Amino acid sequence: MRKTLWPYPKVVAHRGGGALAPENTLAALRCGLAHGFHAVEFDVMLSRDRIPVLMHDEEFGRTVSGTGSVPAMSAAELAGLDAGSWFGSAFGGEPVPTYAQAVAFCREQAIWMNVELKPAAGIEAATGRVTAALTRQLFAAEIVAAGIDSGPDPRALPLFSSFSFEALIAARSGAPEIPRGLLVDAVPPDWCTRLEALAAVALHVNHETLTPDLARQVRGAGFGLFCYTVNDPARAREILSWGVDGFCTDRIDLIGADFPAGAAAK
């Protein structure tokens, strides 16, 4: 049995600022930080010119108005779109940021990143490969330091996660030093085989499909266990009692960054 390793924060702001700001924007990252979160999750997709940008939906219409798609536009064109007005007039004109811009902000503010690879259809491997290559370049110094026994906190490096096995395999090939977590809705029967094939450090699962027995199995095998998206404090306390290592939340106003300490006191 391997020793379970989860050196990352327990509570993570979903898509930057949860339900309090337009998702996957620098405004969302600023919002999460203002609420005390130094751990965020956000989605990365490739533009037409193969530049990683922050976006969840491949097609426009929800967070970006109009018609079109992310892989059909350049990063410069995407930056000119309004990714904030859908959420509220105060965020009007908020641009679609590049992954590099998000990384720069997070590094400046000492924010740990759960980077979800969100590939558009047909470019799964490319999304993993390109994002991994850029991440390896941006974190070159941290990767070198992480290879030294007395190196920095593991949170100096981001964590890749994805529902796409192909994207994660490509990311492993391109930047093996960046840890990986496999995203699933429900825990599949072959979860351990998949995690081992990816050399993953964690399984990320929908909390609604998790059971205490499955939690024990995953952690007993030596993997970290992360849940999405937990918005009720009572439910958060419940899954933490099962041994869940961490979770993301939209309700950063109800579940603070220090929630585990508060939960333990109740």
Short description:
This protein is α/β, with parallel strands linked by helices and 266 residues long.
What does this structure look like?
There is one protein chain. With 266 residues, the chain is an alpha/beta fold. The chain has a single domain (11-57, 98-264), classed as Alpha-Beta Barrel (TIM Barrel). The protein is built from ten helices and nine strands. The protein has helices at residues 26-34, 75-79, 99-108, 124-138, 140-146, 165-174, 191-198, 212-220, 233-241, 259-264, and strands at residues 11-13, 39-46, 52-54, 112-117, 159-162, 180-184, 202-206, 224-228, 246-249. A nine-stranded mixed sheet has the order 1-9-8-7-6-5-4-2-3. Strand 5 (159-162), helix 6 (165-174) and strand 6 (180-184) form a beta-alpha-beta unit. Helix 4 runs parallel beside helix 6. The protein is globular. The two termini are 32 Å apart. The relative contact order is 0.16. The mean pLDDT is 94.
With strands numbered from the N-terminus, the spatial order across the biggest sheet is: 1-9-8-7-6-5-4-2-3
> What is the element string, with H for helices and E for strands?
EHEEHHEHHEHEHEHEHEH
CATH class: Alpha Beta
Q: Give the helix/strand class.
A: alpha/beta
| CATH homologous superfamily placement | Phosphatidylinositol (PI) phosphodiesterase
* Cα Rg: 18 Å
Share in β-strands: 15-25%
Task: Characterize the largest beta sheet: strand count, sense, and whether it forms a barrel.
Answer: 9 strands, mixed
**Helix percentage:** 25-40%
Provide the residue-averaged pLDDT.
Answer: 94
Got a strand count?
A: 9
Poorly predicted ranges = none
User: What is the overall number of helices?
Assistant: 10
CATH topology: TIM Barrel
Specify the CATH architecture: Alpha-Beta Barrel
